[in-house]
Amino acid sequence: IDPAEINKNISVNLGITGDLKEVLGAINTKLCEEKRPEWMKKIEEFNAQAYHQGEFLEISEKDLMGNWSILCFYPADFTFVCPTELEDLQEQYSTLKSLGVEVFSCSTDTHFTHKAWHDTSDAIGKIEYTMIGDPSHRISRIFDVLDEEQGLAQRGTFIIDPDGIVQAMEINADGIGRDASALIDKIRAAQYVRTHPCLFYPS
Q1: Which three-class secondary structure state does DSSP give residue 74?
Q2: d(Cα 31, Cα 197) in Å, to the nearest integer?
Q3: DSSP letter, residue 35
């Protein structure tokens, strides 16, 4: 069987263009869309300032689309637990990049505070991924992780597919740390399911 011919037939019949993996991913989205739980929503529009390797950037929801993304919320810069989690995430960054994943961290601090923390902390100074500032609380509210009373983001981690749909999420209590290495298997599972419509990732 010629994969190119299959791809052509599927594309013509369903009106979907792209290579076979992209087509299968689109089919998976169509087949499972009706039974998608409420939290598996497409990310809403936002605009924010971020810090990345010595530069300030403008970030929007579009930067989290087009490829796989991980968005990691944490309460605040210059705290004790947060740097260990973010450093752990950095240690997995090259592996995640090899899987076609971009990583973003986010707190309700400003991008200026992110830079100050990056410049003064040995652990945070290692970070190569983008650190998003959310002082307006817009992003934290979109992902429903904002502690309204404290004005801080809870420890939420989100895996977002190339279409901007949340495929996995985890929100931890303050005393429960996160292991970034667990994201590797979750990403592989999500990518497998995307290209194998309505199947389960083999354990």
Answers
A1: coil
A2: 7
A3: T
The helices-and-strands tally (H runs, E runs) of the chain is 7, 9
Q: What is the pLDDT at residue 73? A: 97
**Cβ count within 10 A of residue 65:** 17
Catalytic residue among 72, 82, 106, 198: 82
- State yes or no: is 72 an active-site residue: no
How does pLDDT run across 62-101, given as a tens digit for each residue? 999 999 999 999 999 998 777 899 999 999 999 999 999 9
The burial class, CB within 10 Å (0-12 / 13-18 / 19+), for 101 is buried
- 3-class SS of residue 88: helix
Nearest by Cα to 68 from 162, 153, 1: 162
pTM: 0.80
Alpha helices in 72-171 (DSSP H): 82-91, 93-98, 111-120, 138-142
Q: Do the Cβ atoms of 109 and 82 come closer than 8 Å? A: no
- Structure token pair of residue 33: 């869309």
Query: What single string gives the DSSP state of each residue in 149-166?
Result: TTTEE-EEEEEE-TTSBE
Q: What's the pLDDT band for 1 if we cut at 50, 70, 90?
A: very low
The answer for residues whose C-beta is within 8 angstroms of residue 161's C-beta and 6 or more apart is 25, 68, 167, 190, 194
pLDDT tens readout for residues 172-187: 988 788 899 999 999 9
Asked if 96 contacts 105 with a C-beta cutoff of 8 angstroms, the reply is no
